[in-house]
Amino acid sequence: MEGQPEDDQKKDRERGEKAALNAIHECIVIDSGAEFQGRNMSRALRVAGALVLVVVAVAGCKRGEGMLPADEQAFTFVVYPGSQYLAQMTDLEKRAASAMKPSEPPPPIAVYDTDAPVETVATYYAKSYGYSGVAADATNNLSAAKPSAYYRTGDLSEAKQLASLLEKLGVKADLSKAEGPYRGAEIAAAPNRPRVTIQRPYFDFLKSQVVDRTIIVMAP
């Protein structure tokens, strides 16, 4: 801000960065074990969807009923038929996890994408995990029980909140290009199976472009 001392400006930036990271790091985002209420739930899901490529960095956060115990986190990735493995995106996920928890090894993570629609991919994973179906949203028609699989929507512009983290990772992404609505789905973890985040389109932080494909992020 004009006229504001440089130290104060730095503190303001750090506070903004901390607030953005806390929304992720404290499992307010798409952690299937977190509890949401009202506005906080809506905001968290919007942020989570836009930041699909780094939200799994919180895999080691406090565990809820949708997260597996530490001794059960050795799991098998279920790969969607015909999807392609995104090595660089997977590496970015792991680097983000290490940046948030430098004293711990990054969790096992795998990122894929496919031309298949979100609904087709979500249904495939829900059935593979033994769930009855995919709920319309996280509230499951205001049911007391949170669904194990549900759809969500949001806008990619939320990715701008990760500018500071991406800078720390050495990723020079043009976040002004991260815009537009998306549709996604969340599939809760199951025994020996990671949770799955699905979204289309998604923002490729490494290429600074919106990709009209369905991304699949698997992590504990």
In whole angstroms, how far apart are the ends? 41 Å
Class based on secondary structure composition and strand pairing: alpha+beta
Q: Which of globular, elongated, flat, extended, rod-shaped describes the shape? A: globular
Average residue pLDDT: 74
Q: Portion of residues in helices?
A: 25-40%
Strand segment count? 8
Give Rg in angstroms. Answer: 17 Å
Question: Helix count?
Answer: 5
Strand order, main sheet: write it out: 1-2-8-5-4-3
Provide the number of structural domains. 1
H and E string: HHEHEHEHEEEEE
Mind describing the biggest β-sheet? 6 strands, antiparallel
Overview of this protein structure:
By secondary structure, the protein is α+β, with helices and mostly antiparallel strands. It has one domain. Helix content is 29%, strand content 18%. The protein has five helices and eight strands; from the N terminus they run ααβαβαβαβββββ. The strands form two sheets. The protein has a six-stranded antiparallel beta sheet, with helices on both faces. A two-stranded antiparallel sheet has the order 6-7. A hairpin with a 7-residue loop joins strand 4 and strand 5. The protein is globular and about 50 Å long. The N and C termini lie far apart (41 Å). About 25% of the residues have low confidence.
Looking at this protein, list some descriptive labels:
5 helices; 6-stranded antiparallel β-sheet; two-stranded antiparallel ribbon; alpha+beta; 220 residues; globular
Can you give me a brief rundown of this structure?
This protein has 220 residues and is an alpha+beta fold.
